[in-house]
Amino acid sequence: MEQVAFTRMADGSREDYKLLQRLEPEFFGGTARRVIEELERQGKESLPGYKVSRLDHALQTATRALRDGADTDWIVAALLHDIGDGLAPQNHDKVAAEIVRPFLREECTWTVEHHGAFQMLYYAHHYGWDRNARDAYRDSRHFATCDAFCARWDQESFDPGYRCEPLSRFAPLVEEVFARKAYDPAVIRAGVAIGLP
């Protein structure tokens, strides 16, 4: 296996970094596979107490988006909105947003990043917390969309009786999204607010 010569980044040569640059595309190309593997893991190892696994929740949320006629960006955002739960349960929304940010429309990424605060509307009062924490984002052009995402797709998706599509239905969409050029302005569409279908 080809390797760099350095043991400290500061000591790396141009040749070392050219080698890494040449090897990166293959690794980057495996991102979709690793994301799907993480979803599969969430089907086996999830936060206890819920009636569904984190994978089931993701599939239900994405299925609702699909059945509502959402585009690929929304479907993948719905599928991956909680992908950070396993490693970062206290800030899973921020972690998930950083995973999808290079590849999804800004509106979708903003929703993924902030859905945690918006979901508090449904449960925070039971803990004595502020259920209106989302009001801090009221001036955002994406506020209404995030509110609708949570109301229509996210908070509805904890039902063990809901018939959702399998992960195999969504895997090609994940592959399509992660094959995009990272941070392509034509994909990111900064400042554009379309809303949910």
Describe the structure.
The chain is mainly α. The protein has one domain: Hypothetical protein af1432 (Orthogonal Bundle), CATH 1.10.3210.10. 54% of the residues lie in helices and 0% in strands. The chain has 9 helices and no strands. The chain has helices spanning 14-28, 31-44, 54-67, 72-80, 92-100, 106-123, 143-154, 167-178, 185-188. The mean pLDDT is 96.
SSE layout and pairings?
Layout (H helix, E strand, L loop, with lengths): L13 H15 L2 H14 L9 H14 L4 H9 L11 H9 L5 H18 L19 H12 L12 H12 L6 H4 L9
Helix pairs in contact: 2-3, 2-8, 3-4, 4-6, 4-8, 5-6, 6-7
Give a quick account of the main beta sheet: strands, pairing sense, barrel closure. Answer: none
Order of helices and strands: HHHHHHHHH
N→C terminal distance: 49 Å
CATH top level label: Mainly Alpha
Give me the count of strands: 0
Name the poorly predicted regions: none
User: Which CATH architecture would you pick?
Assistant: Orthogonal Bundle
Coarse morphology? globular
Please state roughly what percent of the residues sit in beta strands, choosing from under 5%, 5-15%, 15-25%, 25-35%, 35-45% or over 45%. under 5%
> How many separate helices?
9
Counting helices, strands and paired strands, the structural category is mainly alpha
Question: What is the CATH fold-level name?
Answer: Hypothetical protein af1432
User: For this structure, what is the CATH homologous superfamily?
Assistant: Hypothetical protein af1432
Number of domains: 1
Radius of gyration: 19 Å
Overall average residue pLDDT: 96
What helical percentage do the residues reach? 40-55%
